[in-house]
């Protein structure tokens, strides 16, 4: 059977810093895409110039206000069987396109989603998300896939059958998270959604509390917007998916109890050793098998995973707070007409490289004084890329397929530039 043709869509609003690594990973696919489209969505930085540097198609959108809007802007220009939107801070493994195409041999499959891992593990937030992904994508997703009902097809790297997407009217903009909305809608309609565990994408996560809060508020609000939107149809037409959603809501409702249970035990006659034993036993039964399997499958140093583990609990408390806040807002206040719900799309990262460095430095307590803005990447000729200063610290935890380039001006090795045709 002929492999389906594929277009990568990269929605980009002020993404000049992260875009090179993303485009490089798309250009190095073992089965190349037929076209790569970057949607320059109202950017005020050099996103367009950086994208043009890589010889891809660049569309200038007026500023749609959301990722779904930017992706929809590109759809009239797509002529392939599949489209695969990729976030401008996400790097795909070089076999991603080859693997994600395979499920579409089944004509009923409308969506295929890969496994998401973290690109960096430098901050408590990135380390906490690392554990979340290792557990979620190596336990929840395989179980859901076994019953043909994945709950989330990640918006940063999922492939979609174009004709089905167009028939639906494009990526839905009625909720703040288009990936859940569309994947639930298609499964309710009887189409297939598939999780491809071996197709791996590496996403950049929020680097401090400010932007983690923005991301979690958007994700959680969008989740409950979709519960409100689809609950009745899920129960009627896609009961396995309804079961997973129901279990997740039950877990959210019980999360304050579960997080405070050790404290309750300790204040009701149980000694520290007993409390610790029960807690460690529970952890061993619920998390350890999945994490051990994920660590082996992804070839990660187990000590690095253990080092990330305490951060997971910091993130759990944030998750519990925003889960409850979103549940009350979207399932109680909105139906009562007391709230409009979340309707403004905010990224979980700063827009500019300088802001990103400043937020990262402030989180680590490294900014003793205000930093001067750093110049954006400058290009000298058609085949050479010069980078005046390095971006975020490098991390080899997950063996990310990146291109390394030595910059003699700063005597550093960079990981996000296109390989030059001649030496700098």
Q: Topology, please?
A:
Layout: E1 6-12, H1 19-27, E2 35-41, H2 47-53, E3 57-61, H3 67-74, E4 82-85, E5 90-92, H4 96-101, E6 109-118, H5 124-146, E7 159-161, H6 162-168, H7 178-188, E8 192-203, H8 209-237, H9 239-266, H10 272-286, H11 288-297, H12 302-333, H13 353-364, E9 378-381, E10 384-386, E11 405-407, E12 412-414
Parallel strand pairs: 1-2, 1-4, 2-3, 6-8
Antiparallel strand pairs: 4-7, 5-8, 6-7, 9-10, 11-12
Provide an overview of this structure.
The chain has 424 residues and is of the alpha/beta class. The chain is 46% helix and 15% strand. The chain has 13 helices and 12 strands. It has helices at residues 19-27, 47-53, 67-74, 96-101, 124-146, 162-168, 178-188, 209-237, 239-266, 272-286, 288-297, 302-333, 353-364; strands spanning 6-12, 35-41, 57-61, 82-85, 90-92, 109-118, 159-161, 192-203, 378-381, 384-386, 405-407, 412-414. Strands 3-2-1-4-7-6-8-5 form an 8-stranded mixed beta sheet, sandwiched between helices. A two-stranded antiparallel sheet has the order 9-10. A two-stranded antiparallel ribbon has the order 11-12. Helix 9 crosses helix 12. The radius of gyration is 22 Å and the shape is globular. The protein starts with 5 loop residues before the first strand and ends in a 10-residue tail after the last strand. Residues 358-424 have low confidence and may be disordered.
Residue windows where pLDDT falls under 50 for at least 5 positions? 358-424
- Spell the H/E element sequence: EHEHEHEEHEHEHHEHHHHHHEEEE
Beta content comes to: 15-25%
Based on secondary structure, the structural category is alpha/beta
Instruction: Please tell me what the overall shape is.
Output: globular
Cα radius of gyration in angstroms: 22 Å
Helix content: 40-55%
Quaternary structure classification: single chain
**Ends distance:** 45 Å
Number of beta-strand segments? 12
User: Tally the helices: what do you get?
Assistant: 13
Question: What is the overall pLDDT average?
Answer: 84
């Amino acid at each position: 059977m002929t492999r389906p043709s594929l277009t990568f869509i990269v929605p980009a609003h002020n993404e000049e810093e992260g875009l090179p690594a993303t485009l490089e990973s798309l250009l190095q696919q073992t089965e190349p895409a037929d076209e790569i489209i970057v949607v320059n969505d109202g950017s005020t930085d050099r996103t367009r110039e950086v994208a043009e540097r890589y010889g891809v198609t660049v569309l200038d959108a007026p500023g749609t206000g959301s990722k779904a809007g930017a992706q929809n802007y590109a759809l009239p220009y797509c002529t392939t069987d599949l489209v695969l939107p990729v976030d401008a801070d996400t790097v795909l493994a070089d076999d991603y396109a080859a693997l994600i195409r395979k499920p579409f041999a089944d004509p009923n499959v409308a969506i295929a989603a890969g496994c998401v891992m973290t690109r960096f593990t430098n901050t408590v937030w990135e380390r906490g998300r690392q554990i979340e992904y290792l557990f979620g994508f190596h336990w929840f997703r395989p179980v859901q896939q076994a019953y043909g009902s994945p709950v989330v097809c990640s918006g940063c790297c999922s492939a979609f059958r174009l004709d089905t997407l167009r028939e639906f009217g494009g990526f839905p903009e009625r909720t703040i998270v288009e990936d859940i909305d569309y994947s639930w809608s298609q499964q309710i309609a009887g189409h297939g959604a598939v999780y491809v565990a071996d197709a791996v994408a590496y996403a950049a996560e929020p680097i401090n509390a400010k932007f983690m809060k923005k991301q979690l508020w958007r994700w959680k609000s969008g989740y409950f917007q979709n519960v409100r939107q689809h609950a009745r149809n899920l129960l009627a037409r896609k009961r396995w998916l309804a079961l997973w959603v129901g279990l997740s809501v039950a877990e959210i409702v019980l999360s304050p109890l579960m997080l405070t249970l050790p404290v309750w035990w300790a204040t009701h006659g149980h000694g520290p050793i007993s409390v610790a034993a029960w807690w460690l036993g529970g952890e061993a039964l619920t998390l350890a098998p999945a994490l051990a399997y994920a660590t082996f499958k992804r070839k990660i140093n187990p000590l690095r995973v253990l080092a990330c583990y305490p951060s997971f609990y910091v993130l759990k408390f944030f998750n519990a707070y925003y889960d409850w806040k979103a549940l009350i807002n979207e399932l109680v206040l909105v139906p009562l007409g007391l709230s409009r719900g979340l309707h403004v799309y905010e990224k979980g990262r700063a827009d500019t490289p300088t802001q990103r460095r400043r937020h990262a430095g402030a989180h680590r307590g490294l900014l003793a004084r205000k930093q001067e803005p750093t110049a954006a990447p400058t290009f000298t000729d058609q085949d050479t890329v010069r980078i005046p200063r390095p971006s975020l610290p490098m991390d080899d935890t997950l063996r990310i397929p990146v291109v390394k380039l030595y910059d003699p001006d700063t005597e550093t090795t960079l990981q996000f530039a296109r390989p030059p045709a001649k030496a700098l």
